[in-house]
């Protein structure tokens, strides 16, 4: 079996590292293709070192640009590599342009696609990420899904539960493994050593890069106004290059940088960043990965967005959406900083993203599909019977797999009262309403 991984940005490198490592430990042949969307060493090369994975076999150096140009260049480069390498499966991660380009190219070449971190939905189609992840899900063969809630999103859109694997999120694997390494090593980044971060109290880690925040001046101004008033905190802000550019363009960089309690530094390597976040009292972010890491590291998070595709962090109690509204940011930050019981509740929120064995579960599932021949994508050779969608109220003890075998059917949705359930093979359907596709 040969596995190709496509990645292009900082979070993809971090979240694919545990899988790349797991594939390599099992001696499975693999290639890694970097699109080159992130190219600064602080956004790319440093992560291969920190996460101890080999440099990619290919880098197609697309660089920055508009969505169309970037995605088009990626598709051309990816097609050349996949045509040459002929992998059995292509893995894409998350919701960046690499995911869209990789999934479109692989599906047209009839190569199976595994979407890592599939099924997330913000239900906000103005986000480029929402378009990317939805499009990738349409073309995928295997879905590696962090939580049951995300799996339900896919069921509701008509995907078969047979190809959905609830694996947790590989960010937990990365976090657990590398925090231990980081703690043994200590801070390396010069700017952090100069700040004497280890002896600092009241650290607030800030990251933001989301187009819908940093490209809109009014939103950036509101956030800065809130930061000004949080002057009891040491705000550490490893700045994303996109954000640095727009703050400079809006003439806001110096205003923020001149605040004594705000320390703008360049993006940190993974180990330094994990140490920083785990030392923090509070995280203020619009990052996807950081919402997940905050709940993994037991640090309260305020998310600078009006929606999230990670609602589990909010319902678990570890994350609060504050948008870019000054008063909402301040009200919630002050509550966390002054109400110990409230802060403790946020810190103790259960982590919905698994135990850190997500990479293992993912590669197990891929190996199993490969062994069963399920990664072969070929045109049909026999006339296919059509499916009729039916509905039933089940009134006997029967599991999902028994029902499917007896009826030559595929269960689609399961409702237990008004709650939607994931049709796990062993689920007893007695008393539940189901819809299913029956081969006629
Ligand atoms: C991209 C992803 C986003 C992800 C984020 C992770 C898409 C549509 N967006 O957003 O989902 O959350 O990465 O960080 O795929 N730049 C540099 N050096 C670099 C990279 C970028 O200076 O190494 C600057 C360029 O001016 C560029 C801008 O940052 O125009 C934005 O970069 P881009 O890759 O287009 O999007 P991100 O905002 O990084
Ligand atoms: N991160 C890092 N250094 C930093 C800022 C973030 O290593 O200076 C890591 C962080 O731990 C998380 C990931 O980058 O795992 C998140 O990336 P980003 O916020 O760029 O993208 P998103 O997750 O929003 O797609």
Describe the structure.
- α6 links the parallel β6 and β7.
- This protein is α/β, with parallel strands linked by helices and 440 residues long.
- The radius of gyration is 23 Å and the shape is globular.
- It folds into three domains: 2-169 and 356-371, Rossmann fold, CATH 3.40.50; 177-347, Glycogen Phosphorylase B (Rossmann fold), CATH 3.40.50.2000; 387-439, no CATH class.
- Helices cover 44% and strands 18% of the residues.
- The model has no long low-confidence stretch (mean pLDDT 97).
- It has 19 helices and 17 strands.
- α7 (170-185) packs across α13.
- The longest helix is centred in the first third of the chain and has 19 residues, at 67-85.
- The site of uridine-5'-diphosphate has 16 residues, from α1, α13 and α14.
- Uridine-5'-diphosphate binds at residues 10-11, 14, 207, 209, 238, 240, 267-268, 270, 273, 287-290, 293.
CATH architecture of the largest domain: 3-Layer(aba) Sandwich
In total, how many domains does the architecture comprise? 3
Into which percentage range does the β-strand content fall? 15-25%
Please give the largest β-sheet: 7 strands, parallel
- Average predicted confidence as pLDDT: 97
Give the strand line-up of the largest sheet.
3-2-1-4-5-6-7
CATH homologous superfamily identity of the largest domain: Glycogen Phosphorylase B
Computed Rg: 23 Å
Individual helix count? 19
The low-confidence parts are none
Provide the structure class: alpha/beta
Q: Report the bound ligands by name, code or SMILES.
A: uridine-diphosphate-N-acetylglucosamine, uridine-5'-diphosphate
What is the helix fraction of residues, given as a range?
40-55%
The top level CATH class name of the largest domain: Alpha Beta
Provide the CATH topology of the largest domain: Rossmann fold
Overall geometry comes to globular
The first-to-last residue Cα distance is 35 Å
State the total count of DSSP E strands. Answer: 17
